[in-house]
Amino acid sequence: MKKYIITAVFSLFSIISISAQSKSDAQVSKLYQNYITIKTALASDDADKTSKAAAEFIKTASAIDYKVVSEGNLNVLRKDATVISDARSIAAQRETFSNLSDNMIALTKEFKLSAKPVFVQYCPMADASWLSNEKQISNPYYGSSMLTCGSVKSEIK
Question: Where would I find the beta strands (DSSP E) of the chain?
Answer without folding.
Answer: 118-123, 128-132, 151-156
